[in-house]
């Protein structure tokens, strides 16, 4: 049973999202899009995600990352799920995705169950959006109303994936610009960065941070150096949040205040710049972070492919029909 604090947080999220969700109707997404055509959709997705996260808590972070990396490249169109073909090189093997994005098998398994319940009805893009929301909530984070009605792209772009996604070495100015290019504010960017309160990262993505950065806690750097040598061990994993890596909470912001951000891009949010005040607020007030994160996830979920992009409802998320 939810605690009074948890119920309060969910209510705050619902109230804060109400005006935002009302405006989504203009782009023809609706929280009730599948109510008649696939009424069991959300329970199917949540049950499958719950099983995956119970088996491996890290999978929740992986599915959340999958959604982010899909939406930032030509909109939320499930293009990241497509395998390479003779006509295009897909996004799975782009630099930001090849060794950091996973969870494809979970989405495929959900799609199989959804197709059995309501064939040729639900897009892979909508399944990823729902799975991301449930991943966050099942690990202790907020929930929100997912707007539905997306369609799936017929192609993918490795070059766009290589150029549209911010990297672990990004500066604050670069982060603000790249999120701004997607219509997301600096506040959205900082809230969404809080997703790093869950998950793990490969040594190769944070090695420079622990050996070369000036703004890093020396004890923290030494701890990470124990399993991430200066050469070799690129695939060795470390938790992004040093304290509670399997719980969606505010520890990420606490880490930043202690100069224990795992990525250079993380610590840029708390380095004497414009986002310091927001980091301090999220650190103290989980309810504010949860509300802002939910709102930012809805905004990111509204990123759509260009109007002339051909789309369909894929029967298999890995390939076009």
From TrEMBL:
EC class (word): oxidoreductase
A GO term from the CC aspect: extracellular region
GO molecular function: heme binding; lactoperoxidase activity; metal ion binding
The enzyme's E.C. designation: 1.11.1.7
Disulfide bonds: 38-118, 71-76, 124-317, 203-228
A Pfam family assignment: peroxidase
Annotated signal peptide: 1-26
Reaction equation(s) it catalyzes: 2 a phenolic donor + H2O2 = 2 a phenolic radical donor + 2 H2O
Localization (cell): Secreted
Active site: 69 (proton acceptor)
InterPro entries xref list: Haem_peroxidase, Haem_peroxidase_sf, Peroxidase_pln, Peroxidases_AS, Peroxidases_heam-ligand_BS, Secretory_peroxidase
Site (Transition state stabilizer): 65
Residues the entry annotates as binding Ca(2+) 1: 70, 73, 75, 77, 79, 91
Residues that bind Ca(2+) 2: 197, 241, 244, 249
PANTHER family per UniProt: PEROXIDASE (PTHR31388:SF276), PEROXIDASE 72-RELATED (PTHR31388)
Family: Belongs to the peroxidase family. Classical plant (class III) peroxidase subfamily.
Function: Removal of H(2)O(2), oxidation of toxic reductants, biosynthesis and degradation of lignin, suberization, auxin catabolism, response to environmental stresses such as wounding, pathogen attack and oxidative stress.
Name assigned to this protein: Peroxidase
Protein source organism: Lolium multiflorum
């Amino acid at each position: 049973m939810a605690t009074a604090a948890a119920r309060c947080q969910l209510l705050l999220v619902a109230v804060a999202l109400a005006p935002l969700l009302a405006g989504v109707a203009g782009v023809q997404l609706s929280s009730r899009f599948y109510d008649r055509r696939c009424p069991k959709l959300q329970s199917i997705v949540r049950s499958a995600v719950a099983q995956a996260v119970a088996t491996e808590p890290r999978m929740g972070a992986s599915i959340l990352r999958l959604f982010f990396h899909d939406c930032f490249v030509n909109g939320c169109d499930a293009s990241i799920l497509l395998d390479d073909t003779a006509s295009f090189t897909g996004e799975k093997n782009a630099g930001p995705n090849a060794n950091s994005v996973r969870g494809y098998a979970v989405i495929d398994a959900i799609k199989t169950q959804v197709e059995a319940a309501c064939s040729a009805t639900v897009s892979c893009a909508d399944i990823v959006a729902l799975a991301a929301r449930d991943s966050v909530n099942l690990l202790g984070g907020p929930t929100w109303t997912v707007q539905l009605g997306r369609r799936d792209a017929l192609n993918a772009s490795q070059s766009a994936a290589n150029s549209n996604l911010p990297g672990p070495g990004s500066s604050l100015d670069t982060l603000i610009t790249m999120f701004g290019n997607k219509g997301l504010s600096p506040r959205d960017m900082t809230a969404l960065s809080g997703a790093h309160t869950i998950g793990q990262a490969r040594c190769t993505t944070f090695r420079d941070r622990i050996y070369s950065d000036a703004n890093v806690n020396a004890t923290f750097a030494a701890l990470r150096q124990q399993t991430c040598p200066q050469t070799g061990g690129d695939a060795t994993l470390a938790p992004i949040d040093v304290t509670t890596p399997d719980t969606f909470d505010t520890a990420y912001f606490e880490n930043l205040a202690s100069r224990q951000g795992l990525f250079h891009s993380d610590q840029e949010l708390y380095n004497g710049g414009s986002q310091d005040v927001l980091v301090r607020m999220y650190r103290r007030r989980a309810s504010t972070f949860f509300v802002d994160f939910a709102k930012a996830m809805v905004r990111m979920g509204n990123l759509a492919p260009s109007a002339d992009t051909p789309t369909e409802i894929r029967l298999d998320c890995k390939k076009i029909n």
